[in-house]
Amino acid sequence: MWNVIQRRASLIREPNEVRILRLVRDRGVISRIEIAKATGLHKATVTDLVAKLIRAGFLEDTGAQVARKRVGRKRILLRFRPLAGIVAGVDIRVTSATVALTDLNARVLVEDAFDYPIHAPAQIVLGEVAATIERLLASGKYPRNKLVGIGIGVQGVIDYSTNTLVVSHNKKAWEGESLSALLESRFNVPVYVENDVKTMAVGEYLLGAAKGTKDFVQLWIGIGLGAGIMINGHLLHGITSSAGEIGFNSLDHPRFYRDQFPLTYTGQAMFGQILTDTNFVESYRRGGSTGEANVDSVAVVARRAASGDQVALRVIDEFTSLLSIICIGMVNLLNPQLILLGGKIAQHYPAVAGMLQERIHRDLLAPPAEAVRVQPSAHGERGVILGAASLVLYELFEPPHRVPARAAMRRAPATPIEVEETIPVGQSDVFSEGES
Q1: Beta-bridge partners for 98
Q2: Can you give the pTM of this predicted structure?
Q3: What is the pLDDT of residue 365?
């Protein structure tokens, strides 16, 4: 079955086939002549490539026909077959993991989650991930040979040549461990491992708020602060794969932060220590608002801000100002079209995105700042699991010039596609020369 998967992956590496496949996916249903018009490809080329995609199981004729205004054959409509393959997405957190099976449009078909002890070894957790994938495949009656890839999102810095965890503050014992070897041997499919915030960025690019946007930054506030950076449609990793670790930016000039951020600043050394969910809640408590002892979550502070609580509003204002310092630097350096905010603060108080955009425009009156939009991420807490599935889809469906080098390093040599000498071609597979 590995040869079949390799053939599928090899098949859709060809730029023209990728263009056709993505076009059909985006349009829903489309005729061959419309594909030729949209892509500029010769009609015979479209006929040949569509036939290959149908044989590989990615496309099918709908059976529906569209009459032409002029005399001639009716146009047969095509559609994408998202269940031609199954993808597994895995979100590994500090003490829990979620596993989901999706179709080739990243629509979740079935999922499950499990908890594990904080000091559990990597291979024990990955063994449970493998067991969960097998159980989900069986529960949905999905053949194993339909599984085309596995994506994993995890906190830390990844060595993509080996899929090992290089640095992770929450999983020190996992450092140096391969996060793909066990799953690759068990399922014989490609496994892609990515930093959790970068994973979110891929999901937003393919499926969410950044769809159609090639240059953007995905910010995430949770137990720390991180960023996933997309440039011209692919992730920025950096020479040590640590691009986006903005939480380690230092807070210089303590007096400035003490004066400007009296509720949130308590002597922290880095932005990743001050811009956290925990400090957000503790800052509210430090404000001395009535009933602060009962506040134990970001959601509660957000609700109080929405109801006009002045301390909650001050905390949000301080967080927005601190974020603007980070964002202004990124706008100057990267010139992104979009900044996405992910995490509980943006989820429970979406207005923070507009506040941040206004602050960036106010503090940096220049074309890059005026052009950038700020908005909440589309997927919220589901960002990593959907992004993990998207890692596989990105490798499958993006044109080759956008595929990162790590994909080429890890991809096994593909078996050449075997094309039958005689291909039955019906009326729907042929264009007449006068058709337009």
Answers
A1: 91, 113
A2: 0.85
A3: 67
